[in-house]
Amino acid sequence: MRGITLLAIWLCALGLASPSFAETQDPAGSEERLAQDRRRLVADNLPLAEAEAKAFWPLYARFEQDLSALTQRRRGIINQFGENYDDMTETMAKQITLEQLDYQEARLKLMKAYWPKFDKVLPPKKLARFYQIEARIRAAIDAEIAERIPLIQ
Predict the structure, then answer these.
(1) CB 43 within 8 A of CB 133
(2) Complete DSSP assignment for the chain
(3) CB 44 within 8 Å of CB 3
(4) What is the pLDDT of residues 52-107, one digit of tens each?
(5) Which residues lie closer than 8 Å to 133 by C-beta, 6 or more apart?
């Protein structure tokens, strides 16, 4: 799944893991290219029969929209960290940490909320495989972001 590294790089390009933590302008279409790369990773690693694909991809599009909202939320947390990094107060560190935990909880909640929906369109082994693919994508992105964000001093 080399493509997962590509996805992590795209997130960096979108400003989610910018070393300077500056708010970045997205190049035209970069969000859509990121979504296309993510869909390609899923498609390349999740073989679907025609009937499964017809049911899966529209549902995946809705999932992707909800996931995108969480990505924007995470971007805000990272930007908040960057804006306050040099003058980080105890209060701000606590607030950012709690927001990050809330983000992680919301992402898990999203994955749980979509489980019964995907369960209606995919057999159990393919659904498990899809969730494994999503976990690998998330792990690659998380690792890239963690590597680029310095520890609080």
Answers:
(1) no
(2) -THHHHHHHHHHHTTTT-TT----PPPTTHHHHHHHHHHHHHHHHS---HHHHHHHHHHHHHHHHHHHHHHHHHHHHHHHHHHHSTT--HHHHHHHHHHHHHHHHHHHHHHHHHHHHHHTTS-HHHHHHHHHHHHHHHHHHHHHHHHHSPPP-
(3) yes
(4) 999 999 999 999 999 999 989 999 999 999 998 999 999 999 999 999 999 999 99
(5) 1, 41, 42, 45, 46
Q: Tell how far CA 149 is from the center of its chain.
A: 16
Q: Name the residue type at position 29.
A: G
Q: Whose CA is closest to 35, among 5, 70, 10?
A: 10
Residue 143: C-alpha distances to residues 110, 112, 134 (Å): 21, 22, 14
Tokens of 23: 């708010």
pTM beyond cutoff 0.70: yes
